[in-house]
Design brief:
ten-stranded antiparallel β-sheet, three-stranded antiparallel β-sheet
């Protein structure tokens, strides 16, 4: 049985389409085994005006690579996202093995990110890896970011996150989303 699922990205008002061509269903009408629906095609959008490109990767034949959702007879179970972000050379510039800026204007810094959530797009704690890079007007400084964590979650934090003393003292003043 072919099954398709549309998932709205609330921050963008766009819909991602996931699907599976051979979902196994039992004689009793239940799903047999794992129900994994893959993103049907790469989804590309810009951030920072048009300065950077984000690509959510379609599922491929390698197990657990690309973007996919898991569902059961009860509905949505989880979302797993693999993506890339390609930065404008106006923001950051890739460097070679000797930490020298790469002059080729077609070369860009491309980072990879991933996240897993059981609560949709308002519960995102993503990990990001970037190759070494420099800033256009600071080429003597090279940045090495092997792992950065981006916490956009309304519900959770990165495991092991330690907050400063009194961080939650005035929780009424903490409001980062428009009501």
């Amino acid at each position: 049985m072919e099954v398709y699922l549309g998932m709205i990205i609330p921050q963008r008002k766009d819909t991602l389409v996931f699907g599976v061509k051979d979902l196994k269903v039992s004689y009793n009408g239940g799903i047999v085994g794992d129900a994994t629906l893959g993103l049907l095609a790469d989804y590309v959008f810009t951030i920072g005006g048009t300065k950077s490109i984000v690509r959510l990767k379609a599922i491929n034949d390698v197990v657990d690579q690309g973007c996919f959702v898991k569902v059961s007879c009860e509905g949505f179970e989880s979302l797993s996202v693999d993506g890339q972000v390609e930065f404008s050379r106006n923001i950051i510039i890739p460097v070679d093995a000797n930490d020298k800026p790469i002059a080729d204007s077609t070369k860009r810094v491309i980072g990879t990110f991933s996240f897993y959530t059981e609560n949709g797009f308002n519960d995102v704690v993503a990990s990001l890896s970037l190759p070494h890079f420099t800033r256009p007007k600071m080429t003597s400084v090279v940045f090495h970011i092997d792992l950065a964590v981006i916490d956009l979650s309304d519900l959770a934090n990165e495991p092991g996150m330690v907050f400063p003393a009194n961080y939650f003292a005035d929780t009424d003043a903490i409001q980062f989303r428009e009501q």
